[in-house]
Amino acid sequence: IPPDLDVPVALCAAEVDPDEGQGAPFVATAPFGYVRLRRASYDAAALDAAFTRTRGLGVGEVFVYMKHEVEGPSYAQGLLDRARAARSPDASRPGS
User: Fold this and answer.
1) Contacts for 71-77 with beta carbons within 8 Å, 24 or more apart?
2) Which DSSP letter does residue 89 get?
3) What angle do CA 61, 82, 48 make, to 5 degrees?
4) For residues 7 and 78, what is the distance between their CA atoms, to the nearest angstrom?
5) What does the alpha-carbon distance between residue 52 and residue 70 come to, in Å, rounded to a whole number?
6) Are 42 and 78 contacting, i.e. CB atoms less than 8 angstroms apart?
7) What is the β-pairing status of strands 12-15 and 32-37?
8) What is the pLDDT of residue 1?
């Protein structure tokens, strides 16, 4: 990239299993985010936590990649469901 070109570059945040190290921090470095979810599996609580961390980047758009060939589609749908619920007007009402 030429030095005079102002191009945003996103740090790739990564979530891994504890035995694989620490991953990479969830830090916004661009107006978009790039996240890799690499744990062996994700239950509902782990998807909630991943969604919260991803949303916490505070950027307009986030690209999330998963290493899961079999369960990946259901994990992705789970994240989409959480994003839709968070945007719903009903999400801010008590008891929703």
Assistant:
1) 71/41, 71/42, 75/37, 75/42, 75/47
2) G
3) 100
4) 32
5) 23
6) yes
7) parallel
8) 57
Q: Provide the residue type at 21 as one letter.
A: G
Run means of pLDDT, 10 residues per run, the chain, 96 residues: 78 94 94 95 95 95 90 93 89 51
CB atoms within 10 A of CB 47: 19
Residue 52 · residue 62 · CB < 8 Å: no
Torsion sign across C-alpha atoms 37, 41, 45, 47: positive
Q: What pLDDT score was predicted for residue 92? A: 54
Query: DSSP class of residue 14?
Result: E
Beta bridge partners of 13: 35
> What does the alpha-carbon distance between residue 67 and residue 75 come to, in Å, rounded to a whole number?
11
**Which DSSP string do the residues of 20-76 spell out, in sequence order?**
G---B-----SSEEEEEE--S---HHHHHHHHHHHHTT--SEEEEEE--SSSHHHHH
